[in-house]
Structures
1.
Amino acid sequence: MELKKMAMICCACKADSFIRREPVYEGFRKTGERIFCVSCGHEYASEGDVPYTTTAKPNLFTDADRSRRVALFQDDEKGRNCRHCRHFVVNPFIQRCGLRHIEVQATDGCDDFQARSAEGVDEDPLARTFKSP
Ligand SMILES: [Zn+2]
């Protein structure tokens, strides 16, 4: 059970809250789960009713707080990886190629590689995804 998935804004008490799961037993067999708000105890009928907070949290840190990216690779090594390509699209859930419309990894490479514009080169797309806690 990941903590992120459990965070929600309760529809009953409107608080930034979490869910609590209670197993339901029929005899000794677990037949399901009941889902409650830890703050007010409101019961949710099903997983789909829980207003999970899946949207990004507000940024607590500004860019100035972030430590500079450590250069792990020599320039020629980082060369043609997807993460340095202008078609590389990143959000917290998926990294994809905007050109080929497939999921890619930052370390992938392909023949359609196009370096990002000079001003974007220093901005690490991966680092951007970690801005929100
Ligand atoms: Zn509640």
2.
Amino acid sequence: MSVSPLSRRSVLAAPLLVAAAGAAAPAAVAAPGRPGAPVPEVLGQSPVDVRRSAVRRGRALPPLQVHYRRDVPVSLAYVTRDAGSPDGCSTRDVEETEQAGVRPGDGWVVVGGRRYDLLQTHFHTPSEHTVDGRHAPMEQHLVHSDADGNLLVLAVLLVEGPAGEADRLLSVLPDECVDPVTVEHVDLRAMLPEQLGAVRYSGSLTTDPYTEGVRWFVLEPRTVSAEGVARFRTVFPDGDAREVQPLGRRELVADPSASRWLRRL
Ligand SMILES: [Zn+2]
């Protein structure tokens, strides 16, 4: 499938974000995490609300350089968190997702001279990050690690509109407890916006073990088809997103080029 170009018009026309209390935010999403999971200390956790009035314009930030291949196979699998439970193959855990594994060397980013390799990408519904309290229908995370195990995540809010590269994965979505599916000819770069201006902050994994010290880059939203969103919600009818965590003393710092899309939301 070819990639639908993301025109500015399509972004402007798309119903970008919905109120957190609206129908698009399933009630179960409010659960702080997996029942029984240890509650982390609330210090530097993710996701957070991107309150636009609190975003500071960064100066001389090290640029985010992306090196993603444009025609690669990925291995798409349902990530289960309750394999030991008798009905684990049918129970939807809020921390489960559909995840595409990426081969070593097929994607990496460089920030401040440090290389982070792309490990996998996965999805949440509704979005985990909010903007002024509003969710997008979905959010895609692209998880990277440097050689020392330090993590960096690119977050892309997904809004309904023309089909995008994420639809390549959302059209497959293997069931829980079945073998992964190889999806060929995936354009990793097309999963990101053309302009890489981001809102940056220091946070955590949004699932157990909630490891902190993760570098987060929230990028300009991209579009996916309404069918793709609906398909993912069929798998996760109660959602698979963690609720937003207190920002505390942390700062949200934006690249100057992020101000255009931030204003539009
Ligand atoms: Zn995630």
3.
Amino acid sequence: MSRLVQHNSTAPVPIKSPADGSPTWICQCGLSKNQPLCDGSHQACKDEDSNKLYEYNEKLERNELSQSPRPSSVYKS
Ligand code: FES
């Protein structure tokens, strides 16, 4: 079984430590290989066109999709 997940964010979100306020960066782009933590892979999607849909391979190479998947098969985060 596989599933397709759509992410619209191109940057991480900081979660501050209650102990000392230091941030832990949580991935929101979906490309990190160290989920749920950001590993900097979001750099690959910084210049995306917000009106287009892309997919990425393991090497973070981008492919623009010519057709959007059916809306019922996509979870947006
Ligand atoms: S936000 Fe996903 S790798 Fe940084």
